[in-house]
Amino acid sequence: MTRPYILRYLCPFQTNTFIKQTMKNLKLSKYLLKDLSIKDQTIHNRMVLSPLAGLGHIALRQLISEFGGFGLLFTGMCSAKAVPHENPNTSLVFKWRQEELPWLVCQIFGSDPENMARAAKRIEKEGFFGVDLNFGCSVAAICKKGCGAELLKNPDLSSNIVKAVSDAVSIPVFVKFRIGWENNPQAAVDMAGRFEDAGANALTFHPRIAPDRRNRPPQWEVIKLVRQAVSIPVFGNGNLFQAEDGIKMIDQTSCHGLSVGRMAVARPWLFAQWTKGFSPGNDIFFTAAMRMTRILSDHYEDHFSVKLFKKFSPYFCANFKFGHSILKKLMRAQTMDDIRNNLDSIFESTPETLSRPNLNLFL
After folding, report:
1. What PROSITE patterns has UniProt attached to this entry (predicted)?
2. At CA 167, angle to CA 162 and CA 172, rounded to 5?
C-alpha cells in the first residue's frame, strides 16, 4: 500500500487537494529551476522579486532570503540623481546587505540619460548583479517629473536612457515597463524592440496600461507578443497569486521567468513554496510577521520601522477573511512594541485565511 493511498483512505478530500497542489508545484518548479543566461551572467532560478516602491526594502528582501527559493531580488525605486552620492549606512532606500549583492538588482528612476548612467556606474561599483530602469511606475508624483511610465510617451528619450546606461556599465541592464498610456499592444512590442536595440539585456513586462492601477486584469496575451518580439529574456508580471497562475502564464506566454510583486509581500515564503517545495505550517503568518518586525528594527529606527510595517500590513492582511479588521488593529500601533503586542493579540486564535488574497487590500 503506497503512502498516497493511505492518506486518501484516511482523509480523501484534503489529500486529493494536497496531491493536486503538489503536482502543480512540481510542474512549475521544474521550469523555474532551469538556468537562464542574462548577458554574461547565469541565474539558476527564473522566479524573481519584482521591483516594489516603498516595499522592496532591505528588510523584506532579508525575510524573503531567509526562506530562499528565488533567482533575483530587486530593490525599490532609487532616485538616479541621489544614487551617486547616497550613503548606504544612512540611506532609507539605497541600502543592502553585502551577502545579497550577487543576486540583487538595483532599480533607478530618472529622465536624464547622463544621470541614469552615472547612477548605474555607482551601482556597478558597489557590486550589484544588475541595474533596472523604471519605465513602469504610473504614480502621479513620479510621472510629473517625466519619469517612470511617463517615459513611454517619449520612445526616443527612453531608448537613449537605455543606451546611455548600457554603454556605461558591464553588468546586466533590465527594463521594467507597461503597455503604455493607451491600450495599444503594438506600442509595447515596438518599445521592447527599441530597448533591446539600445542594449537592454532583460525585460520585465507588466501588461497593463499606465492609467490602469490594477482595476482591470493584466493582459497576459501581450506578454507573449513582447516575448516573440525580442531575443533577450522577458519576465512576466501581473496577478501571480497561486502556482496555477504561474503555470498558466508560462504556458500562455512562453515568458522566460516570473516576476512576483505584491504576492511576495503578502507571502514572503512564496518563492520557496513554488520552487523548493516548502510547505508552510499553520503558524507561518504569525512567525513571518513577527520576524518582519525584528528585521525592520535591526535596520531602521523605531519610527521608520513602524512606517514600513504599516506599508507591509495591507498586503499581509489580504491573506485573511477578515483582513480589514486585522489591519485596523495593526494600524493603531505607534511603536514596534505596539505592533508585536497587536500581533500576539490577533493570533491568540488563528484567523481564517484565504487561498487567494483580498484584492481590496492590495493597494
Report:
1. UPF0034
2. 70
pLDDT digit string, tens, across residues 295-324: 999 999 999 999 999 999 999 999 999 999
| Residue whose entry in the numeric block shows the C-alpha cell 556599465 | 169
The residue ranges of every structural domain in the chain are 33-275, 284-361
Which residue ranges make up the annotated binding site? 107, 176, 206, 261-262
- CA–CA separation, 122 and 141 (whole Å): 25
Each residue of 121-146: pLDDT tens digit?
999 999 999 999 999 998 999 999 99
CA dist 227 and 206 (Å) reads: 12
Fold designation for 33-275: TIM Barrel (3.20.20)
Catalytic residues: 137
Residue with cell 530587486: 74
pLDDT attached to residue 25: 73
Query: Which residues are CB-contacts of 108 (< 8 A; sequence separation ≥ 6)?
Result: 77, 78, 79, 80, 83, 116, 119, 120, 123, 131, 132, 133, 134
Q: Where is the binding site for FMN, in residues?
A: 107, 176, 206, 261-262
* Apex 314 CA angle, 271 and 86, nearest 5: 75
